[in-house]
Specification:
- This protein has two helices and six strands, in the order E-E-E-H-E-H-E-E.
- By secondary structure, the chain is an alpha+beta fold.
- It folds into two domains: 72 residues, no CATH class; 42 residues, no CATH class.
- It is elongated, with a radius of gyration of 23 Å.
């Protein structure tokens, strides 16, 4: 399963919206919109880190001037959403039709990281 790309800065939990690339022969750091694919010699950054990046003395920073768009949803997100919609469209089972587990509790359906919980009456 492909997960959303996160900021490359240590300890930063935010989603990446920009890509940092170093052009060593020109002593330049380039911060642009998030690249379509993660590359080995680039770094993904969240918006605060992309906006506040500084380069070493003697280096130039070329920074994207516009807004950084959030990353598009992954296909995994779309598949999970489609599965949830299909699950919600299925006929509702009555509580007595649901097999109880060994403790007598009705079981819940599970789809990846989503759960279908039977309605309470």
């Amino acid at each position: 399963m492909r997960s959303p790309r996160r900021c490359s800065r240590n300890g930063c939990p935010r989603l990446a919206v920009a890509t940092l690339t170093y052009v060593y022969n020109e002593s330049t750091a380039v911060v642009g919109p998030l690249a379509a694919f993660a590359e080995p010699h680039t770094y993904d950054l969240c918006e605060p880190h992309a906006r506040s990046l500084t380069a070493p003395r003697g280096w130039d920073v070329v920074r994207h001037e516009g807004e950084f768009d959030p990353p598009p949803p992954t296909t995994d997100d779309l598949v999970a959403l489609a599965e949830a919609v299909r699950e919600a469209a299925r006929p509702v089972q009555r509580t007595e039709d649901i097999d109880p587990d060994q403790h007598g509790n009705p079981q819940t359906g599970r789809r990846g990281h989503l759960r279908v919980i039977p309605p309470s009456h």
